[in-house]
Amino acid sequence: NAGVMQNPRHLVRRRGQEARLRCSPMKGHSHVYWYRQLPEEGLKFMVYLQKENIIDESGMPKERFSAEFPKEGPSILRIQQVVRGDSAAYFCASSPNSRTEAFFGQGTRLTVV
Amino acid sequence: TQLLEQSPQFLSIQEGENLTVYCNSSSVFSSLQWYRQEPGEGPVLLVTVVTGGEVKKLKRLTFQFGDARKDSSLHITAAQPGDTGLYLCAGATHQGAQKLVFGQGTRLTINP
User: Chain B residues with CB-CB distance to A under 8 A?
Assistant: First the structure.
């Protein structure tokens, strides 16, 4: 899973600031998934994207959160006006198609102070 | 809402003992995956089971998918300190899709 690159690994933001989390999928992978993990919990699905398209965003909070996967460049998970409850580890996973297991990145640990 | 219940949540045993972790749901999944996650890292896929009743072995680890594809188990034989970690089960919710529903995890500690 070292092939899925997430940055930054750690991100500290003050309440009200914006957080941008980046995910570069493995080479040849055009499907990206974002998950959130709270301390001592399992991962919760947020959003599923293919290049330039959001396929399923049923796990995304309706406000302040957005995701994109442009034709060129990494996928971005954007959190506006962060609150303390947004503190969590955010994981990205990628796969070459919808039928193959996805590989996870090392995650971005967001801390809101 | 599909849920996966993992048990136990915490397990601490001595080196050399056997253990089983369970993953149960009232929902049917098209496939079920087991992951291991180290502190500060992302989940690493151990195995995927697809067919009801399927059994897969990975050295000392045995994975089973229930006949009805609603539950799964992970059995470790002769546990070693290197097996210590967080084990997660995850069910795929659509045929062919990787939108996964995760259990809350089992934190396993193997004491030397």
Answer: 4, 6, 33, 35, 40-45, 48, 88, 90, 96-105, 107
Beta-sheet pairing, B85-92 with B55-58: unpaired
User: Using only C-alpha atoms, what is the Rg of chain B?
Assistant: 13
* pLDDT for A100: 80
Confidence at residue A94, expressed as pLDDT on a 0 to 100 scale: 94
The candidate with the shortest Cα–Cα distance to A25, out of A4, A6, A47, A54, is: A4
Residue A97 CA to residue B45 CA, distance in Å, equals: 17
**Closest by Cβ to B98, choosing from A1, A33, A44:** A33
Range A80-93 average pLDDT? 96
